Model the fold of this input.
Amino acid sequence: MRIDSMKGRVAWVVLGLSVLIACVAGRIAWLESSYAALSTQLAKPVVANDTALIARGAYVAVLGNCTGCHTATGGLPMAGGRALKTPFGTLYASNLTPDARTGLGQWSADDFYRAMHTGQSKNQRLLYPAFPYSSYSAIDRQDSDALWAYFQSLAPVVTAVPAHELRFPYNLQASLAVWRWLFFTPEAPASSGIAGPAQSGGRGAYLARQLGHCEQCHAPRNRFGAIASNTLSGAVMFGQDWYAPSLIDLNDAGVALANRAATIATLSTGQHNKAVAVGPMASVVFTSLQYWQAKDIEALTDYLIQAQRTPVPPEKFDIDSTKLLRGAKVYEQHCSTCHAENGLGEPGIVALSGNRSLTSHNANNLVKVILQGGFAPATSGNPQPYGMPPFAHVLNDEQIGDVVSFIRQSWGNKAAPINELQVRALR
Ligand code: HEC
Ligand code: HEC
Ligand code: HEC
Done:
């Protein structure tokens, strides 16, 4: 056993070294070409106190949800230090304010564009892809310059951002170089930035795929954490239990034409009568989507509508009527005061009947919401959302399995039951 694991380690090191040597040459060639591409992108000199540019940058920062990661809980805006847990260890978001020592004070607009486009810091350090530069890479140069001008206009804040705490071998720049060599190529810049026409078909794609980086959660990843397919076909979030549903399948959270208004409401206010943003999506609405201009929410929604694919037929399953009877009892005792006997919800409370989060093939989010409770995001369109109490200490695994199976098969909902083992795995 011990010898085996030693052998394994030696094999790993040998393999690692040879891959490394093989890719150094490739990496140098790649860097040269990406710098060459960069220099052709140089815009006219950016004037740091241009107020129109700063306003545009502030809005690009909203669209890109920079604050969602770069503002620590209780910390100053964009001053960094927020911890991001990944399966490889903990990363800390950088300070984007213009402090000379701990922030971007010494950066130029070119340095900033290089970080967004090629994922490299000013000192050429390769940046970890927890910073979603694989999405931002195609950012329009003027949008990048606007962002830079906006960050330079903030008051400088000194933040002692802790060093990243990653396990070996993920803490090595060489490993990251290999990862990037395999999975990341800077993308050609988008044809127009946010100053382009709102009605153009390209705008929705630019908002969804680049600035809004929806695919970072809604696209499947491989086991190295790289986005495996850049469709928004749904995935359990990397290293977490939350399921980010498919945005292109009607049976999941796909946006059918008939649901255009409902999707616009859910994205901009966090709630609609048959949908509510919960967990990580509630944060996205809270710090970003609620501040998007109406025309941009519409362009985003229209992009999702045209990305729609032919629905995958729902899975087949058996119905266990005693389980459903037990689930109905739990529902009557603990849930019906808020969600109503008929599943339509008391006023202001999300309906469970006809709610597609309930009929998704993946039931993780239902179990998580019941265990942990929670609130829809507070937005100007829904300023005082009602809360859902946590049931982790009230109901056992079997009861939660029963009630989830019941609500997935009542009031016209038709989705597979779940068992207590699935609940236990999520506790
Ligand atoms: C999902 C979380 C996340 C989001 C969203 C995010 N960042 Fe970051 N960002 C990070 C992390 C983590 C790092 C640190 C990466 C590293 O040190 O390798 C980082 C690093 C950076 C850096 C490099 C700083 C340096 O000192 O090298 C820049 C520039 C940056 N982000 C800009 C932005 C901008 C602009 C936005 C919004 C358009 C944004 N980030 C959105 C997580 C995020
Ligand atoms: C940080 C991860 C993350 C990002 C980024 C993200 N989402 Fe989500 N999204 C989720 C998760 C998790 C859910 C499931 C929870 C829920 O239903 O609210 C979700 C749910 C949704 C839903 C279904 C809401 C409902 O309940 O019917 C829609 C629509 C959606 N996301 C659209 C988007 C769009 C568009 C973007 C890009 C602008 C985006 N998401 C970015 C994680 C994310
Ligand atoms: C005190 C009122 C209240 C009670 C009791 C209650 N809920 Fe909720 N529930 C809510 C509210 C409000 C929300 C939306 C806010 C949130 O958590 O995001 C919600 C959200 C949900 C969701 C998520 C729906 C979605 O679209 O993502 C599910 C599933 C759910 N409740 C099931 C239950 C079940 C099952 C019970 C009983 C075990 C229950 N609730 C008890 C108020 C309640």
